[in-house]
Amino acid sequence: MAQITLKPTKVPELYLECYNITPDAFAGKSLMEIADLDAHEGKIKVKLGDYFDIAGQSGNTVEETAIKIEGDCSKVKYIGNKMTAGSITINGNADMYVGGWMKGGKIHVMGNVDSFCGIAMEGGEILVEGNAQNHVGCAYRGDWRGMRGGTIRIKGSAGNDIGTFMLGGTIIIEKDAFIHVSTHAEGGTVIIKGNVQGRVGGQMVKGDIYVLGSVQYMLPGFKKVGSVEQKIDGTEATFTHYVGDLGERHPKSKGKEVYANLYVLES
Amino acid sequence: MAEILIRNGFVIDPTRNINGDVADIAIKDGKIVESVGASAKVIDATGKTVMAGGVDVHAHVAGPKVNVGRLMRPEDKLHKSPHAQKNYRMESGFSIPSTFKTGYDYARMGYAFVMEAAMPPLHAPHVHEEIHDTPIIDQAALPVFANNWFVFEYLRNGEIENAAAYIAWLLKATKGYGIKVVNPGGTAAWAWGLNCLTLNDPVPYFDITPAEIITGLMKTNEYLGLPHSMHIHQNDLGNPGNYEITLESLRLAEGVAAKNNFGRDTVMHSTHIQFHSYGGDSWGTFESRAREVMDYVNKQKNISIDLGCVTLDETTTMTADGPFEHHITNLNHLKWANTDVEVETAAGVVPYVYDKNIKVSGIQWAIGLEMGLYAADPMRTFITTDHPNAGPFTRYPRIIKWLMSKQAREETLASFKHTDKVIDATNIHSMDRELSLFEIAQMTRAGPAKALGLSGMFGGLSVGMDASVGIFDLNVNDMPSDPEAIEKAFARACWFIKSGEIIVKDGDIVSHGNKRTIWVKPNVAENPQVIRDIEDKFLKDYSVGSDTYQVRDYLAPNPYVIEFDVEA
Amino acid sequence: MPKWITQVGCPYCGASCDDLEVLVSDDGKRVLETRNACAIGNEIFHHAQSPSRPKLPRMRQPDGSMKEVSYDEAIDYTAKTLLAAKKPLIYGFGSTNCEGMSAVARVAEKGGAVLDNCASICHGPSFLAIFDNGYPSCTLGEAKNRADVVVFWGCNPMHAHPRHTSRYSIFPRGTFTAKGQMTRTIICVDPRETDTAKLADHHLMVKQGHDYDLFDAFRTVLRGHDIPDEVAGIPKKTILDAAKVMKNARFVMIFFGMGCTHTDGRNHNVDIAISLTRDLNAHTKASIMAMRGHYNIAGPGQVWSWQFGFPYCIDLSKGTHAHMNPGETSSIDLAMRGEIDCFVNVGTDAGAHFPIRAVEQLKKHPFITVDPNICMASEISDLHIPVRVVGVEEPGVVYRMDNVPIQFKKVVDGPEGVPSDEELFDRVYERMCELTETEPIWLLAKDHAKAATNAEQ
């Protein structure tokens, strides 16, 4: 796989919107052409070459293109925006929208990410070694079609609104989460390996949530139905099985209502 | 204003029965004239089609429910907003475009006039603020009357004269155009969570039925002699088997004669008739009844219709038929906005996806086109999508393509998941008719202009008429074999001249023109009872003052007022 | 003879009362007396007369003092500052008319700015909920005429909207509510015993921050399922009783306020309130309404929705299309993250309302305030430009909390030479066009001054 290395050369005064840092935009381009790709700082149109030293070689196809960012991208948005294949590695933090509207390929962030990581994702993999802010794998405002596929793994903790309006795919938060997990979801799986404060599965229609830590405040719309043993992301354990949100509408299958499932580790 | 000469185009003007003759069109001071001087700007239209500016009889483009749709659907903008033309206002949205985009897009398609199809009177200042911000096109708005307490009380007592005096007052107060009827009685019932699904369901607390409301408003319309006929969205929209109630309400026009000085022959305009021509008794047995409805429309000459064609897009439904929107949200579970408006009306908004993979969507698509293809009189059958309900108005060129090309219809039909089931439930597959450019000009220009009582201004290219002219890249003697070329030609006019000013060149906007707000001011004799009733209702039932209610003149800064005296 | 002007709109709260009467002096320059206004509304009409009101822009000097400058100079500075910034933020609009909002939108588009309004720190979460779940609502006259059960959730109109309960929600005698308060059952959900709670038949003292849980309990009960013995600090029986009252009503009206939008979960509290309203419509008729704060804070949500498709947090910096995503494009987030380099505060007081850290960030860059009065924001600004007071000296369209347009009047002339927001921003726009050598875009000729409106009175 051919690799392009981007080395940040200066910190933008405001924030950079680098919607072109994707294997899709880089594939088949020369270093000069890549340096000439557009980005925005506020209303000022800039070039990637203004902010990054660009080395290496791009692949002939998107699949064959790997991008490595050697440095901090705390003020860079939209890395991996709408990417369909290839890979991106960020040796540092990244700002908002990492892997937003992503359809395929892999993104690996060594540091933390800000909000809207994996927003409206359809496929591919995102791995974040650090923490994520809010709205991991959520839908865009107003859209009832949230995350549809792919996997997001946050090795640290995450904030609120994880998997809002989720329809498919998997989100794993290895540490704690704040509030609102899978709100309005109609599919997909969210695994929280730490603790979560509350509002887990509110207005949820279908889908699965696993909490391997504790839920501080359970919603009244979730009802305990039993106990199951299951292996989840490498952990084999006994979970208390709840169904809900009983306050929400639910589809019927073979005459029976289909609920969302919440599994909480039995302590 | 500069003089313009459009040379050598194939002119299609149904108002003078001109069908593709090569001729010149001369323009001066915003009007069509006999001839212009040597210094006139010459536009070479050789090999191209020249038609009057388009007239849209029914679209939801300005006002509170349109804006609720814009507000509640950010996803309708995401990755869907085209990039702005340099030095023009930004353009936003697909199914419910921003006001700027609305004006620009209509102009790009060569449209000169658009009727906002439902204005809640209480929100009239809002409607006019949006019309003000919609560039280029001339617009008017139809206030809704069929769930209004004044109207109920006057019609229940058979007081046509009082209803007329009230409607005349309201048209002036709201700068409105005519009488719009939406789910008569049903929307008023919705204020209590109910509906009127037949013509004889009494309206709760008002002791009147939908049939009486329709008949009464039709009579009031002719008493006033308004330019447009009563414009109706019937009861029981969108439900399997509703074609019977549709026929029943159309029959109410029998024996009612048009009385006006605006060249209008019709007394009822039945809008988005596709939504009202359904057979079957469930979604499983859902089928087309386009033929039954059109057979009646074809022989009943005092009725006009518009199609309301489904375009197979993700769109936004919005209507003053409040109970229907509640019904839709219960079907598709998507977000639902509702606004009940005191004393007058209601409205609802729900996003909707007409999916090629869903049988019912395919059947709805077929029904809309069938109605156009069954039409015996294109002067009474108009192309619409009930924008944005069955699809956005920007799809008119695609509908024209489907109506003009069996090949295009078959290609779409073949792309469905349930092609065979759609064919079984409809007649479209067996219909070979392909409409001509002349018939398209009738359905989009001459016909709607006549039904609106605007045939003196719009719809034709006679001397003295408003100089709104579209030039399209279609050679009438050598029509393209690829139907896509028809859609492309109508999507972006080569030239569009609006009221004598060049607005579009090669599909791009080049001027903001000088749009007008058209409204109707019938002068009736002073009616003390109605004045008392108005004062009384504003004190007791409304939450605003009667003075606050009336639209200030500056909100319609370039008005075209149709003022006339009503003979008692 | 002094003259009474009737049906005057009140430029205070979101109830946007239009039944005020104002006594104006012979010369049409002074307000002498008002009728029907609440104490605050009355004060606004009198305060506009204050001799200490600024009548010229004031520019910060190198020594830190403020010096009066001409409007031309202030307009030139504003135009140049907006053009020079990479990402300006124009925020506010709690107190101006729609004409002003429209004029500002044109400036923002030209300047590649982010356009935001006070909803961002107030009912913005309600917009997020509307995006996700819709808004089954009605006009206030419907509440007056029909509602027999009225729920106040996280709002206290007795203080925040002084005439709301008498005009629309508790006391008025409407068409189908002829006995006024006697017809209505009032439910109040609030952690505190507010003055509105004191009027209620049922007061549910929800545990602070647990509104979402309580909404979920109501929904669960309405679908016939059991709930725990206590939810959000409220005993099950109380919840069952209140649910029954709502279910058996003929028309339920739910008003909610910042108690929902400004506790944990924010938009989700409103979102599930909307879900509850939807659910209730399976049993009876139900409507919900945000208790919007200012008399025209619903205005920018309307004007900018029709112009750009979004009600707030509108990022116009790309020049080609508008982008909105609160959490990113919202004023506080932009300020806190240091994402903007110029701030224009219009018809509000960001100095008083924003978190101090946000204000500190904003103060690193040019800071301009447009407001009739001296306020905290004006006093920390680099430039303060006074304008006429809408509803007193300037007519125009405003949107009430139920999005009904109300056409406000002017009752007296403004101070000589002081422009309206609309006039000011149109001049800023023209100056920006001059500086960039571009043609201004006017949709219609600008000769439609409101002279006609003034004459109508």
Folded structure, characterized:
The complex is a heterotrimer of chains A (267), B (568) and C (457). Chain A is mainly β and 267 residues long. Chain A has helices at residues 23-26, 31-35, 48-51, and strands spanning 2-8, 16-17, 38-41, 44-47, 52-56, 65-69, 76-77, 87-90, 106-109, 125-128, 151-154, 170-173, 177-181, 186-192, 196-200, 206-211, 215-217, 223-232, 235-244, 252-253, 256-257, 260-265. In chain A, the strands form 4 sheets. Chain A has a 13-stranded mixed beta sheet with strand order 5-1-6-8-9-10-11-12-14-16-22-19-18. Chain A has a 4-stranded mixed beta sheet with strand order 4-3-2-7. The longest helix of chain A is centred in the N-terminal third of the chain and has 5 residues, at 31-35. The mean pLDDT of chain A is 97. In chain B, 32% of the residues lie in helices and 22% in strands. Chain B contains 18 helices and 24 strands. In chain B, β2 (18-28) and β3 (31-33) form a beta hairpin. In chain B, the strands form 6 sheets. In chain B, strands 1, 2, 3, 4, 5, 19, 20, 21 and 22 form a 9-stranded mixed beta sheet that branches. Chain B has a 5-stranded parallel beta sheet with strand order 9-10-11-14-18, sandwiched between helices. The model of chain B has no long low-confidence stretch (mean pLDDT 97). The two termini of chain C are 17 Å apart. In chain C, α3 packs parallel to α18. In chain C, a hairpin with a 5-residue loop joins β4 (58-60) and β5 (66-68). Chain C is globular and about 65 Å long. In chain C, 63% of the residues are buried. Chain C folds into 3 domains: 3-47; 58-122 and 296-447, Rossmann fold (3-Layer(aba) Sandwich), CATH 3.40.50.740; 124-290, Dimethylsulfoxide Reductase, domain 2, CATH 3.40.228. Helix content of chain C is 36%, strand content 19%. Chain C has a 9-stranded mixed beta sheet. Chain C is α/β, with parallel strands linked by helices. Chain C is built from 19 helices and 22 strands. The interface between A and C is large, with 37 and 44 residues. β16 of chain B pairs parallel with β8 of chain C.
